Amino acid sequence: MEKLGYLLLAGITNGSVYGLIGLSLSIIYGSSRVINFAQGDFVMLGAMCAILFSVTAAVPLGLAVPLVLVAVMLVALGLDYGVYRPLVRRGAPPLTIMMGTLGAAIVIFGAALQIWGPDQQFVPTLFSLEPMKLGVLITNSQQLAIIALFAACLAVTWFILYRTRFGLSVRATGVNPRVALLMGIRSERIVQFSFLFSALVSSMSGILVGPILGGQIGMGLILTVKGFMAAILGGLGSPFAAAAGGIAIGMMESLMAGYGTSLYAEPAIFLLILLVLFVRPYGLLGDYEAEKR
């Protein structure tokens, strides 16, 4: 029973990271109908910039955290102004824009390689990694902080989307950008908000998950794939469905690693996604969220 509890906690922790990336992908997709293939690199930049400011530049951690958030959000702005807007103004289809974000991800990876190199590095911790007992479970403060961030981001996202006039504009743009534009909603501002908000969420995820996974420039690609899998499994059209898909993938990974072998975890997840898409083409919660909206 203790082993099961440990595996479930590890699954929720990993799933929270995947869910946050899936949520970020879904927010951008909802406003622009574009998949941002550089999303995982925002998480990577969060972890690596924490090293840059806190370790290399010896900035106090309390000041380093907001500097990391600002740095990653500036990269997101560069992606918006340098890739998304120029392509949209030239009438590029969504697939071309997605290829543009993939190119941006490659550029970010190359720049990170020049700055930090290929080796894994230690990321400073915000919270303690010392084991602590939580009932029958053994965890640490860093793990609990990741889960708390996941819950907080879900709450903030729900409040913005469903309890503010700006959130109504975001949802209207996602339903029909042209009609929203005729109603006076500036879709470019909405898309810019989605890039900035997703960068903020992902950079915070990187700061918290970096000390557990270790800082490595290749982590962005892996996390982009896991976040995309989470969004497809749960439902790409809804941030909350995508977040639920992340938890499901994290739990499945953890249980398969604990009671079987981790070698078959990813093939099993891909098979699960394929089977789900045969039955529910919009994901597990996609139809429900679309009807609710």
SSE diagram, text form:
Layout: H1 2-32, H2 39-56, H3 61-89, H4 94-116, E1 132-134, E2 137-139, H5 141-163, H6 165-175, H7 177-182, H8 187-213, H9 219-234, H10 239-259, H11 265-279, H12 286-292
Antiparallel strand pairs: 1-2
Helix pairs in contact: 1-5, 1-6, 1-8, 1-9, 1-10, 2-3, 2-4, 2-8, 2-9, 3-4, 3-8, 5-6, 5-8, 9-10
In round numbers, the mean pLDDT is 87
Element-level helix/strand string: HHHHEEHHHHHHHH
Strand percentage lies at under 5%
Shape: globular
Low-confidence stretches: 288-293
- As for the number of domains, it is 1
- The number of strands is 2
Round the Cα radius of gyration to an integer and report it.
19 Å
Which structural class is indicated by helix and strand composition?
mainly alpha
Could you estimate the helical fraction of the residues in percent? over 70%
Spatial separation of the terminal alpha carbons: 40 Å
Spatial arrangement of strands, main beta sheet:
1-2
Task: Please summarize the sheet with the most strands.
Answer: 2 strands, antiparallel
Annotation field: number of helices: 12
